[in-house]
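Annotated sample (chain length 82).
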Amino acid sequence: MTMYDIDMRTIIDLTEDQVEALDRLRASEHASRAELIRRAVDAFLQAQKGASIAERPGFGAWKKKRVDGLTYQRKIRAEWDR
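Output written by the structure step:
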């Protein structure tokens, strides 16, 4: 048995809207919230499995920006010290 063969509990924070939507779905699917969340995680992981880095959301978001990312990061972080 590997560490991946066991179930693991985790705590997540959901918005009120997410909980309400899950509860509506739970009633129609006759499944627990936990089961619905497991299905959603499985679907997400399956979708990511075949996606290359270039196909993932956010990849290349700064491609057309005319500012250096590190310079921008330092500028933003400098504001935290105020």
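Annotation: Residues 4 and 39 are 17 Å apart (CA to CA).
Annotation: The mean pLDDT is 84.
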